[in-house]
Amino acid sequence: MKFLLAIFLLGNCLAKDEDLGLGDRFLKEFSAPVTTDAKYILGGALISAGMVYVNKGRRRYNKRESFDDAKPFGDYGFVGDIMGWGFLNGLYTAGHFLYGIYGESEESLKASEHMFKASFYTLLVTASLKTVIKEKRPGYPEDRASFPSGHSSMSFAFASVVAARHGWAYGSLAYGAATYISVSRINDDWHYLHDVLVGMGIGAAYGWGLKYSYDEGLPFQFAMVPLPGGGNFSISYEF
What we know:
Elements: H1 2-13, H2 22-30, H3 32-35, H4 39-54, H5 77-83, H6 87-102, H7 106-133, H8 150-166, H9 168-187, H10 193-215, E1 222-226, E2 233-237
Antiparallel strand pairs: 1-2
């Protein structure tokens, strides 16, 4: 996740000096989950999480409150843990970027940027909330980074971009993987249900919110910029 943050900042530093509107673009993209129809996705997730959280004080709200103390994935929750560290997002971004460059596919470049930005904004919001709220994890109370679930937010950002870009056939597979990752976090005592629901909402809202923004005609693309000495190149955005 920190790698995504570094690349995003590097990309903006390499942007041409004459480019204008960087701040406006950031605000438009950052606010996409509440300024586009994605607000219904985010709102639904927040309402669901709120209902779960309100019931926390009325009953035993333990680490697996949805499963009556059962571990649906048994000892295989670690698979979701590994998958949820942003690898799917990174592989999609890199794969489509390389194909876009060498296969001269503008759509692949757009898909790569869509995934990259959805992942970055999701990471930014998730990390910020974790830092501010500092909720104790259900199974690891010494760790205060439970809310919201980063694995859930990143995996649902991935699945939502796949669905938005490639249709529901591929999207359903991606959402299935994202759901497995999210439930595995409860299975392994890392998160409460409300942590996971909010994480899902954040990721899905950015995946779809940016798609809605792009559909409004928001210009974006990657550009290759030759550097002195030959053989080298950098990446910048054109606005």
